[in-house]
Amino acid sequence: MFCPEEVIFCPTNRCNLHCGHCTVTRWKDDLTAEQAVAFLEDIFRWRKENWSSREVTSDESPFYVGFSGGEPCLDIDFICDVCEKAVNLDFYFDRITTNGQWWKTEEELEEKLGQIYEYGFDGKFGLSWDSFHGGDKIKLMTFARNVCEIFGPSSLDILSVINPASENNDADFFSAMEEMADDFGGELINELDEETGKGQMHIAFDDGSYITIFRFPESYREYDSRAWKNNRWFTDDFCQSTGNVFYVHSNGMVAPCCGFANESEKLFLGKVTDGVSKLMENARNSKLMDLCFCTGLENFRKSLEQNGTVLPGITDDLCTFCDYICNRGLV
Questions:
Q1: In whole angstroms, what is the distance from residue 320 CA to residue 45 CA?
Q2: Does the predicted model carry a pTM greater than 0.70?
Q3: Phi and psi (nearest 5°) for 281?
Q4: How many helices (H) and strands (E) does the chain have?
Q5: Which residues, including other chains, have CB under 8 Å from residue 149's CB and lie 6 or more apart?
């Protein structure tokens, strides 16, 4: 059952970087703050009117607002306007996902982070830091330090993609985390899986605050042969890890998840200007939504094989499989 608990706005798909692993389409359209604010107001009304339904479990259940892209910090005014409205509606904040390298001077960085703080943002900054994104270590450290000083250390998450083809760069990453822990006066705690390298690390501080460092494998689109070379199939979670969100793309199209397959037209629920009631009606009438959130993509995969469909291989990534069935017209 699709039960939206968050809206993620992509004010722009523009970005100051061109990372090799990124598959985001560089649409020229930019979402306007007016569209986003109107959508927040509509979400608020819809939740109040439907709180007793299966789609809204409680009128007091938290609803979150986050930002992604592209690089969302290329439009600070958008972030500030949306934050102001979210605070007014008593919504909570999730993440601003950023590469942390969009600023030119530290004065500019301090000013713009200060603006976001003044407009009430109290969520987390998800800083992408790995060999794919590259960048100047000193610049990334400076971004991290400013976030911690303005918002507090626990407001910073570091999002790091494991790159098996760049062992030296990954070694540089771990060295940088150790250096950050020393410079910031914390202790680096490693809780990664020794075999896969996946999991979390933390930079813990004496006052109980901490920076969380997430390490996760690279995701592949369905047309990449690397996507289909796993030893076991994905385990279905009915899209609970990536779904139950309104993901508003910069061109105004709304998807029900933040997985990388969410640029597929098959997943679009409509436009942000359609209103929440229409988007939810479209979700209820979508076969793909039923597969993702109710029947399960794992069951659908098994039924395809039973009916003679030959898949390209085995993938342990549910989003890769969703990407595949959307692009190949199997649903």
A1: 35
A2: yes
A3: -65, -45
A4: 9, 11
A5: none
Distance in angstroms (rounded) separating the CA atoms of residues 293 and 236: 10
* Rounded distance between C-alpha atoms, residue 133 and residue 121, angstroms: 25
- pLDDT at residue number 313: 97
Q: Which residues of 71-97 are buried (b: 16+ CB within 10 A; e: fewer)?
A: bbbbbbebbbbbbbbbbebebebbbbb
pLDDT, average across residues 149-163 = 95
The Cα-based distances of 65 to 4, 41, 47, 90, 288 in angstroms read: 11, 12, 14, 11, 25
**pLDDT (tens digit, 9 = 90+) per residue, 61-104?**
899 999 998 999 999 999 999 999 999 999 999 999 999 999 99
What whole-number distance in Å separates Cα of residue 102 and Cα of residue 97? 12
Please name which of 230, 193, 245, 241 lies closest in space to residue 214, comparing C-alpha atoms: 193
Q: How far apart are CA 134 and CA 11, in angstroms?
A: 23
